[in-house]
Amino acid sequence: MLESLQSQPCQPYSRYGEDVALDSACLFCRIILGEIPADIVLRNDNVVAFNDINPQAPTHVLIVPRLHVENAGELAQISPSITADLFSAAAEIAAQRALSGHRAVFNTGADAGQSVFHAHLHLLGGRALAWPPG
Ligand code: AMP
Ligand code: ZN
Which residue owns the Cα nearest ligand 1 atom 17? Predict the structure, then answer.
């Protein structure tokens, strides 16, 4: 199942026009296109989810929109619907794994720890998570 998901490249997402299509210089766009391998756990018309390469919890999944936007705020302005799809995917994955709790996080800007400038929701779970975060 996962192997077939990983070997099935997406078509560029163009519903909103060229300004928000996939960017061939972006790591996560290249994962969406299947040009860079990733451990994909969910894919639908609007989002792709894959395991973080450097997991911070037993479940650490990145959920990304299938269009290139820099951060969550920009995504919300372009498409509230796709923003909601990211949270729906997080809930679906959390339910599949019967997580007793989970955290959904968007880092925005380098000072907040954002290192990849394609909006992505971190889904963390599978262990007790401390608050406040560092
Ligand atoms: P952020 O620091 O919020 O921008 O999150 C970027 C995340 O992407 C980090 O948690 C990285 O570990 C993760 N990451 C970087 N490269 C890859 C990759 N090739 N596959 C999966 N996750 C990655
Ligand atoms: Zn991108």
Answer: 53
